[in-house]
Amino acid sequence: MRILVTGASGLLGSKLCKLAVRKNYEIYSVYSQHKPLYGAPVQFDISDKDAVEKIFKKVKPEAVVHTAALTNVDKCELEKERAWKINVEGTENIAESCEKFHAFLVYISTDYVFDGEKGMYKENHKPNPVNYYGLTKLKGEESIKNLTDECCIARTSVIYGTIPVAGKTNFALWLLDKLERKEKVKIVTDQWNSPTLNTNLANMILEVSERKLTGTFHLAGATRLSRFEFAKLLAKTFSLNTNFITLASSREISWIAKRPQDSSLNINKAYQTLKNKPLKIQEALEKMKKEIEPF
Ligand SMILES: NC(=O)c1ccc[n+]([C@@H]2O[C@H](COP(=O)([O-])OP(=O)(O)OC[C@H]3O[C@@H](n4cnc5c(N)ncnc54)[C@H](OP(=O)(O)O)[C@@H]3O)[C@@H](O)[C@H]2O)c1
Q1: How many CA atoms lie within 13 A of 278 on its CB side?
Q2: Ligand 1 within 6 A of CB of 79
């Protein structure tokens, strides 16, 4: 299969390309600044419509996994124009080219399309984003539904895993590093989501692409956790001292953008449909441990 992966240098994209190359797929790895490690690298800005079309014409992908986005939630709040250009206009460009060149599209969306008032959201719950990042990702969902027929919207939540080529850390690696150095960390107890191991997510997305499953799916970890519970489990799995983790309330943290309180996702549809199931937290953490050993 020939797949074009946008955001190939990111936390999810890099893992996805690695696994797809291992399956002997022909992978084209799109990036803007950080050269990806896996697949054939292709550099362009997704907000440049002509550049997007040119690549589709050349590569003729059978499937596109669109993970590229401005993912920094506070940056999106501060740089709204840039966030719109990448997350909305960039997604429209990708969707239009998918339709024109008959490629199946998997768009990676987020639990942040929900307001976090209820938690355990199903695919048909009404989105109501509380920050600009969530709004741009929701607009992206609407655009691809309007512009393409053959597409899947895959919403996920707090991705973690081994370090991507872009060098950006993630919550799990940041925490493990702090605890290794015996530094105290304050972690919030009043925010819940569905932490998702990038390897588990990448395998589910590859299956969706192979089977060309259309519609919306919640592809996330199978366990709802507060950030504090997640931190404790991480520490225990990696045999690190949990005493360095102290409790905090989200009121104490000076975020620029508002966060949904409980954006956990109900993954029953994915569980029933896919051969690659969403993993429960302990299973996912053991898998991550194996991936980064020796730690
Ligand atoms: N991380 C999470 O916890 C989380 C949770 C829910 C949903 N999601 C969604 O999952 C997807 C993947 O997230 P991630 O954390 O893996 O992302 P990430 O690590 O922040 O990587 C973002 C990727 O997007 C690329 N990119 C950014 N602007 C671009 C542009 N103008 N043109 C081309 N490429 C561009 C970056 O390329 P360069 O490195 O070359 O700049 C990078 O490869 C995103 O769509 C995000 O909204 C993430």
Answers
A1: 26
A2: no
* Statement: the pTM of the whole predicted model exceeds 0.85: yes
Domains and CATH numbers, the chain: 2-162+196-223+263-279 (3.40.50.720)
Atom of ligand 1 minimally distant from the CA of 7 = 43
Average pLDDT over residues 112-117: 98
Which residues 6+ apart lie within 8 Å of 63 measured at CB? 1, 2, 3, 4, 103, 104, 105, 106, 209, 212
Indicate if ligand 1 lies below 6 Å from the C-beta of 36. no
Question: For the chain, how far is it from start to end, CA to CA, in angstroms?
Answer: 35
295 pLDDT band, cuts 50/70/90, is very low
Q: Which of 71, 79, 191, 200 to mutate to test the pocket of ligand 1 (most atoms within 8 A of CB)?
A: 71
167 CB less than 6 Å from ligand 1? Answer: no
Helix (H, G, I), strand (E, B) or coil at 115: coil
Distances (CA, A) of 249 to 182, 226, 227, 284: 22, 11, 11, 26
| Beta bridge mates, 31 | 43
